[in-house]
Design a protein that fits this description.
Layout: H1 2-32, H2 36-48, H3 54-66, H4 70-83, H5 88-98, H6 112-122, H7 126-149, H8 153-186, E1 189-192, E2 196-200, E3 209-214, E4 218-225, E5 228-232, E6 238-242, E7 246-248
Antiparallel strand pairs: 1-4, 1-7, 2-3, 4-5, 5-6
Helix pairs in contact: 1-2, 2-3, 3-4, 3-5, 4-5, 6-8, 7-8
Length: about 250
């Protein structure tokens, strides 16, 4: 019975992939024929089937861009960048899409020690720093054992210094790994989908308006309270926006 269930599961998965491939090809044909709205329907059907890829999000961004759908085009380009952060074509297209947005928000650059530490931390992902930590610890153990069992004074000195050097590298890598994890955890970007949204000073409709945002603007979500999201802009401004007015980028 278990074997039968496994076979059925494999066949179902294979059929799902085949169906999604067919839908993707249909969407591409519709896009090339200029039927952008119908192409979007095909691509979104693939998303609803649970398949996600940079290429799929990129095509969705392109189709929405052709229809001047500002927020969806930026949203899907951003999703594509999450899966392929070094893709130049995606980076170029999202730059064009952002030119359609209304809000001109300054960017406050990082300075001082924070800039150096965060820059170094972001040079590798969490897995990369964790890998360095594991390798560093293994080398430390090997060198320390070699030091412990060696009879040569010169060898002992060299292996002792080298082993603790790798221990230091391990500790630094672990520190960067956990800092990278915290940066990723705090990074909760979202795109404004409302044509115009009032950002409030407090999470209720009776509070004063802090500022207004328009579709396509990217924000950082800091907190959630009921149907409100506390957001922060790249210029440092904060406020509360209706959860219905934005879409989080890190949800798949």
């Amino acid at each position: 019975m278990k074997k039968l269930f496994l076979i059925i599961s494999i066949l179902t998965t294979a059929l799902g992939f085949s169906q999604n491939d067919s839908l993707f090809e249909q969407g591409n044909k519709l896009y090339n024929d200029g039927d952008y709205a119908e192409a979007i329907e095909k691509y979104e059907t693939i998303l609803n089937n649970g398949e996600h890829s940079a290429e799929l999000y990129f095509n969705l961004g392109n189709a929405n861009y052709k229809l001047n759908n500002i927020a969806p085009s930026i949203f899907y380009y951003e999703k594509a960048l999450q899966l392929a952060p070094n893709d130049k074509e995606i980076q170029n297209n999202i730059a064009f899409a952002k030119n359609m947005t209304i809000d001109a928000i300054d960017v406050i650059p990082e300075v001082g020690l924070s800039k150096i530490v965060n820059g170094a931390t972001r040079s590798l992902g969490f897995d990369g720093w964790a890998y360095i930590a594991v390798v560093g610890m293994l080398i430390f153990v090997v060198l320390y054992l070699y030091y412990y069992f060696s009879y040569s004074t010169v060898t002992k000195r060299i292996t002792f210094v080298a082993s603790f050097a790798f221990l230091g590298i391990t500790l630094i890598a672990l520190t960067f790994a956990f800092h990278r994890y915290e940066l990723q955890k705090r990074d909760q970007p979202a795109i404004v989908f409302a044509e115009e949204s009032q950002v409030k000073s407090e999470p209720n409709l009776r509070s004063e308006e802090a500022f207004r945002l328009h579709e396509g603007t990217k924000v950082q979500v800091l907190d959630t309270l009921n149907d409100w999201k506390k957001i922060k802009l790249t210029d440092g401004k904060t406020g509360w926006i209706s959860s219905n007015d934005i879409r989080l980028l890190k949800t798949f």
